[in-house]
């Protein structure tokens, strides 16, 4: 057992720190099962060294090391007997070793815990983390946002069809309280042209969802959790393309191309496109354009809801050089167009209002192990978004749901006359360092720096010199952590410093005479310390316990401080939100023959204060954010997964949470608020997922596979407003959506998928009155050229 | 403390699905149930909660407003949209959504024979900044605050057919007719004889000072014919600042047809209060489109208070909401007075809570009794919300019904529809 756990720790460390450069011995090969099927995710390592790796999709691996002498090479995977072979390394050995693993036929003892996939290893960390293995979803037409919806504890809510705004919640926290990362880099400055609602699932290798306590490697001011999207990092040439077409004139395509030369030169292109008219039908009360009279319950088609985006991510650089394990220079280019069909309710209907956005974001990524000194690993990244966003509302019209309109004279908008265009000039730089003191101890230091300087103008309102005022904010999150690892337990403690400086304009009257105005620039500064710890203990090799705690802050976002000049007024007095997060969890694995059962149970508690929430401004013309509310949340989430060999997998996850209002006194009131300890309204509190997958191998010919997949989403009904109030109440009804996916793969190269979402054509709502699409069909073809 | 919370949370997990809410009973029952209900008071209330998210306004009905208590817990009709405004006219109760620029549904109710509110219809309306009953119609105006699109739109709504019957537009920049290009922003709508009078303030609508003006010391009232809504003239005066306030009526007509105009004197320039004239009342005699020389200095008569809101009762008497210190153009006062415009007196109302403990007053939609003897207002203090019934003759208020856990947004009354 101890050996296996040692291996686990090593494998785990390898994944975290990558493989060192300056390699001279090179061992390559493939790991196959008895049927000569490749085994992806198998562990290959040289015993008693730090050299090791996991096999790729096609079962291939490559090990590099500079060691000399006699060693043992070991290969393992869950459900298979561990393979080992003595090898002699000269320091420049070139070896090709294809390994066939034998299935473990007799019970538990033969199954090795070391054979866990990367996905499993991330789950083994002390943090409360869920991992979406997006490879399993790459045949679907999902975007990353919808892939996240399958994670226990996570709820994704959206207002409509393709490209519509998504709102994520993790165990009761939502919006900006949750931070998103792409390969560890905060996505805060990406703008709407590059977001989870438009990034195809193919881009990612896996998605890690940290609930509550966030490791310092993800340096950010997350209050309720973080989502890290890990993209595919192919180590060899790869080329694939996909295209899908479906209901509501929806087209999506992706191209992923990677070139790796022998000299270490790397070029990567990820390009994708989404287009949809979103012309699905909704049931709505249609108003007579002239009299205002409603004709109830009409079925109408959406008519101002087109969405499209086109994005390309290009990276070039080098790998495995003496000065860098990886050095990539890149740029993300993209644009998006979105028509806005409705306001916060279906009764507000628009016919011409739309927005545009683009992204031009140069970036830099640098990775080096043994950076300057041995055992110091460095990761540095930076990006700067030069892109802009524009809100276009120039039709002085009023529409109804039949697309009829009244036109008024003069300039005006459907909501608020606007051609407002702005750039946030938002840059992010991150650096993280890991130093391994010895086999047990690691120190980590990470820093994330974020700068924001909004410049905007509005051709529709040229006189408004508000746009000239400074709107600058600078954030820095510094983290320091220490980890101690033993064979059957590990623990880390960490501290974070949250710093923010905001620069803005205040006006005053310099002379006291009427009409005089002068401005002075003023600066606000916040500085807070957060801290936490995470522990995990393996009672048995198949039974793990986890506990974590943290005090964390979420700094006010730029929009909350400076407003959006349209509907949101800035509030430069905002303070950070903060929360105490507690997690306690357990995982159990049971394997016998070809069966694997995994059971996870997590409980959590959150105690959060100074929540940033909207209210109306003084003359009730805009919304303004304030530090208004405190909440507590106690909840439980559990997940059970079953796998039989490679052909069948099924899972079920359920989350229940008690999100309660903890604001006892409102404003100057000395009497307890009537909604004190009431359940927070308009938040799902009981929801879950179920899925099942069956694959038929070698259907018509060898290597032709057919897969049938099913997914169920359930959300219990919940109240729009405070549950305890009123007797005639507004409800967001129960949601039950069944999706089915059929995939036929030819020769592992060509894949055809047919997908039906919401197969029972139920009326689905994530948000009050905002109906989502009914039954929809999509077909997808994916071709892997290399 | 933390531990307690944890235990509480854990308990919750063990199956406390919903908080049980004791439904605070109305405390009153129909006085003569066998004789049938004739009328009901309508109280609307917003539960006190932090922020605006998840907060709705609830419509409650009750038989008496002088005693007992009522609560929104488990009681009342929940309405969509946090901000609601109400108007009662033609024995119908209209609930309007303030949707920040978006159109929204307005719901109308009447009282059925069982004494319950019955929804008559939903109809779509714009978010407006002024609305008032004019004969059997409601006139609503959506007003621009943007100098680049200086258009106010008006809508006439027929309360019998429950449909809009006409609409039109007013160029508020042309109406204000200022060299600086400031816009007219109507404070409210008052029917005067067969015309509508629209008092307005001027505003820049731009340049970091949208609601500011460089004309803080003048009053203007635009006069329109009705129902044609044709512009007739503007009544101008420089003895007071503008009439009414943002979203607040400042013009009322007495039994003689004379219109009394109240100025709070709260114009702002670059975010600072800039009116130098006192809060005062002026008058437009019946049939005239000019102020006469009537002038009543409220601040002098009240010993330094200014009036923020007022409701006309009768015989020259108003119930005014008063404040001592001007802090904002949008704040309502915290104390009450009987303002007699005939005798030019201001009499403080006794029996209301200490002004320093007043958190909020219901400045709109207060209820004037049928016999014009009492005015019912909602007051929220640090310790709760009550309806106070102000006896106008004696200038004394008595604490009436408690509204548990919420602020009172409107008090009204409907008769049963035969």
From TrEMBL, chain A:
<feature type="domain" description="TonB-dependent receptor-like beta-barrel">
    <location>
        <begin position="304"/>
        <end position="759"/>
    </location>
</feature>
<dbReference type="InterPro" id="IPR036942">
    <property type="entry name" value="Beta-barrel_TonB_sf"/>
</dbReference>
<keyword id="KW-0813">Transport</keyword>
<keyword id="KW-0732">Signal</keyword>
<dbReference type="Pfam" id="PF13715">
    <property type="entry name" value="CarbopepD_reg_2"/>
</dbReference>
<keyword id="KW-0998">Cell outer membrane</keyword>
<dbReference type="InterPro" id="IPR000531">
    <property type="entry name" value="Beta-barrel_TonB"/>
</dbReference>
<keyword id="KW-0798">TonB box</keyword>
<dbReference type="InterPro" id="IPR039426">
    <property type="entry name" value="TonB-dep_rcpt-like"/>
</dbReference>
<keyword id="KW-0472">Membrane</keyword>
<feature type="domain" description="TonB-dependent receptor plug">
    <location>
        <begin position="122"/>
        <end position="226"/>
    </location>
</feature>
<keyword id="KW-0812">Transmembrane</keyword>
<keyword id="KW-1134">Transmembrane beta strand</keyword>
<protein>
    <submittedName>
        <fullName>Outer membrane receptor protein involved in Fe transport</fullName>
    </submittedName>
</protein>
<dbReference type="Pfam" id="PF07715">
    <property type="entry name" value="Plug"/>
</dbReference>
<dbReference type="GO" id="GO:0015344">
    <property type="term" value="F:siderophore uptake transmembrane transporter activity"/>
</dbReference>
<comment type="similarity">
    <text>Belongs to the TonB-dependent receptor family.</text>
</comment>
<dbReference type="InterPro" id="IPR012910">
    <property type="entry name" value="Plug_dom"/>
</dbReference>
<dbReference type="InterPro" id="IPR037066">
    <property type="entry name" value="Plug_dom_sf"/>
</dbReference>
<keyword id="KW-0675">Receptor</keyword>
<dbReference type="Pfam" id="PF00593">
    <property type="entry name" value="TonB_dep_Rec_b-barrel"/>
</dbReference>
<dbReference type="GO" id="GO:0009279">
    <property type="term" value="C:cell outer membrane"/>
</dbReference>
UniProtKB/TrEMBL annotation, chain B:
<dbReference type="InterPro" id="IPR025401">
    <property type="entry name" value="DUF4374"/>
</dbReference>
<dbReference type="Pfam" id="PF14298">
    <property type="entry name" value="DUF4374"/>
</dbReference>
<protein>
    <recommendedName>
        <fullName>DUF4374 domain-containing protein</fullName>
    </recommendedName>
</protein>
């Amino acid at each position: 057992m101890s050996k296996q756990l040692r291996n686990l720790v090593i494998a785990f460390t390898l994944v975290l720190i990558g493989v060192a450069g300056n390699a001279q011995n090179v061992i390559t090969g493939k790991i196959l099962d008895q049927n000569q099927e490749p085994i992806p995710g198998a562990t290959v390592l040289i015993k008693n060294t730090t050299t090791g790796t996991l096999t790729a999709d096609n079962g291939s691996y490559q090990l590099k090391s500079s060691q000399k002498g006699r060693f043992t090479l070991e290969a393992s995977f869950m459900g298979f007997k561990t393979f080992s072979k003595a090898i002699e390394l000269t320091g420049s050995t070139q070896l090709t070793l294809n390994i066939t693993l034998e299935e473990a036929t007799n019970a538990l003892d033969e199954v090795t815990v070391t054979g866990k996939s990367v996905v499993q290893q991330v789950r083994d960390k002390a943090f409360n983390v869920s991992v979406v293995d997006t490879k399993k979803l790459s045949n679907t037409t999902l975007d990353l946002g919808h892939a996240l919806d399958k994670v226990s504890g996570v709820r994704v809510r959206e207002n409509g069809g393709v490209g519509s705004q998504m709102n994520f919640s993790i165990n009761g926290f939502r919006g900006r309280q949750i931070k998103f990362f792409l390969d560890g880099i905060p996505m805060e400055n990406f703008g709407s042209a590059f977001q989870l609602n438009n990034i195809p699932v193919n881009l990612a290798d896996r998605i890690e969802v940290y609930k509550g306590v966030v490791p310092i490697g993800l340096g950010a001011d997350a209050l309720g959790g973080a989502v890290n999207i890990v993209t595919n990092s192919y180590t060899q040439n790869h080329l694939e393309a996909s295209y899908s077409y479906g209901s509501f004139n929806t087209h999506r395509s992706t191209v992923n191309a990677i070139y790796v030369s022998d000299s270490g030169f790397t070029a990567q292109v990820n390009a994708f496109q989404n287009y949809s008219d979103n012309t699905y039908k909704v049931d709505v009360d249609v108003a007579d354009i002239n009299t205002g009279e409603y004709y109830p319950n009409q079925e109408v088609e959406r008519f101002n809801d087109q969405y499209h985006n086109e994005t390309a991510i290009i990276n070039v650089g080098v790998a495995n050089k003496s000065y860098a394990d990886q050095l990539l220079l890149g740029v993300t280019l993209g644009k998006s167009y979105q028509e806005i069909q409705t306001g916060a309710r279906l009764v507000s209907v628009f016919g011409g209002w739309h927005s545009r956005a683009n992204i031009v974001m140069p970036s830099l990524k640098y990775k080096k192990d043994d950076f300057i000194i041995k055992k110091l690993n460095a990761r540095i990244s930076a990006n700067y978004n030069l892109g802009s966003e524009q809100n276009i509302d120039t039709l002085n019209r009023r529409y109804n749901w039949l697309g009829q309109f009244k036109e008024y004279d003069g300039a005006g908008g459907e909501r608020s006359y606007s051609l407002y265009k702005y750039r946030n000039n938002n840059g992010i730089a991150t650096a993280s360092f890991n130093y391994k003191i010895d086999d047990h101890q690691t120190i980590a230091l990470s820093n994330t720096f974020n700068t924001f300087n909004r410049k905007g103008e509005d051709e529709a309102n040229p006189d408004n010199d508000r746009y000239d005022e400074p709107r600058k904010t600078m954030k820095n999150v510094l983290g320091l952590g220490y980890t101690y690892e033993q064979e059957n337990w590990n623990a880390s403690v960490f501290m974070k410093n949250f710093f923010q400086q905001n620069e803005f304009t205040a006006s005053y009257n310099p002379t006291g005479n009427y009409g005089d105005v002068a401005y002075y620039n003023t600066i606000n500064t916040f500085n807070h310390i957060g801290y936490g710890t995470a522990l995990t203990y393996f009672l048995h090799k198949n039974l793990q316990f986890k506990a974590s705690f943290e005090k964390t802050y979420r700094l006010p976002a730029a929009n909350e401080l400076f407003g959006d000049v349209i509907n949101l007024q800035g509030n430069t007095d905002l303070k950070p939100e903060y929360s105490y997060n507690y997690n306690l969890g357990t995982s159990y694995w049971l394997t016998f023959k070809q069966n694997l059962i995994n059971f996870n149970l997590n409980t959590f508690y959150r105690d959060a204060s100074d929540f940033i929430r909207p209210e109306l401004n003084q003359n009730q013309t805009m919304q303004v954010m304030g530090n208004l509310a405190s909440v507590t949340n106690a909840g439980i989430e559990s997940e059970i997964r079953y796998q039989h060999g490679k052909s069948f997998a099924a899972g079920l996850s359920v989350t229940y949470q008690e999100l309660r209002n903890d604001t006892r006194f409102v404003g100057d009131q000395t009497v307890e608020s009537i909604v004190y300890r009431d359940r927070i309204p308009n938040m799902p509190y009981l929801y879950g997922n179920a899925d099942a997958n069956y694959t038929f191998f070698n259907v018509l010919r060898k290597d032709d596979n057919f897969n049938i997949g099913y997914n169920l989403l359930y959300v219990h009904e919940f109240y729009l407003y405070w549950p305890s109030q009123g007797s005639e109440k507004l409800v967001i009804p129960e949601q039950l959506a069944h999706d089915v996916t059929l995939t036929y793969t030819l020769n592992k190269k060509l894949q055809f998928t047919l997908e039906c979402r919401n197969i029972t054509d139920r009326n689905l709502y994530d948000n009050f009155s905002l109906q989502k699409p009914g039954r929809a069909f999509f077909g997808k073809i994916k071709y892997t050229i290399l | 403390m933390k531990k307690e919370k944890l235990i509480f949370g854990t308990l919750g997990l063990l199956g406390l699905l919903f908080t049980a809410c004791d439904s605070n009973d109305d405390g009153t029952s129909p006085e003569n149930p066998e004789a049938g209900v004739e009328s009901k008071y309508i109280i609307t209330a917003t539960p006190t909660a932090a922020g605006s998210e998840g907060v709705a306004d609830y419509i409650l009905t009750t038989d008496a407003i002088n005693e007992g208590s009522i609560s929104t817990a488990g009681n009342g009709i929940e309405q969509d949209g946090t901000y609601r405004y109400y108007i009662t006219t033609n024995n119908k109760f209209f609930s309007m959504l303030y949707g920040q620029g978006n159109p929204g549904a307005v719901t109308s109710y009447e009282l059925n024979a069982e004494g319950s509110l019955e929804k008559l219809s939903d109809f779509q309306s714009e978010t407006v900044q002024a609305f008032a009953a004019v004969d059997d119609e409601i006139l609503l105006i959506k007003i621009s605050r943007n100098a680049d699109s200086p258009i106010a739109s008006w809508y006439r709504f027929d309360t019998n057919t429950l449909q809009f019957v006409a609409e039109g537009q007013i160029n508020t920049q042309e109406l204000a007719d200022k060299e600086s290009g400031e816009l007219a922003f109507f404070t409210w709508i008052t029917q005067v004889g067969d015309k509508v009078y629209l008092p307005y303030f001027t505003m820049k609508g731009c340049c970091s000072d949208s609601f500011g003006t460089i004309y803080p010391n003048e009053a203007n009232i635009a006069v329109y014919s009705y129902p044609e809504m044709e512009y007739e003239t503007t009544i101008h005066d420089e003895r007071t600042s503008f009439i009414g306030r943002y979203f607040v009526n400042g013009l009322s007509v007495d039994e003689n047809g004379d219109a009394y105009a109240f100025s709070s004197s709260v114009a702002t320039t670059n975010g600072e209060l800039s009116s130098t004239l006192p809060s005062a009342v002026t008058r437009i005699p019946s049939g005239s489109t000019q102020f006469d020389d009537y002038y009543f200095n409220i601040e002098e008569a009240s010993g330094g208070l200014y009036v923020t809101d007022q409701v006309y009762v009768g015989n020259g008497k108003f119930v005014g909401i008063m404040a001592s210190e001007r802090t904002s153009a949008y704040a309502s006062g915290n104390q009450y007075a009987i303002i007699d415009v005939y005798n030019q007196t201001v009499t403080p109302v006794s029996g209301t809570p200490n002004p320093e403990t007043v958190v909020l007053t219901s400045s709109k939609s207060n209820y004037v009794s049928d016999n014009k003897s009492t005015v019912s207002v909602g007051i929220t203090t640090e310790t709760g919300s009550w309806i106070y019934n102000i006896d106008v003759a004696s200038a004394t208020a008595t604490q009436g019904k408690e509204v548990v856990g919420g602020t009172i947004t409107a008090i009204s009354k409907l008769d049963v529809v035969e």
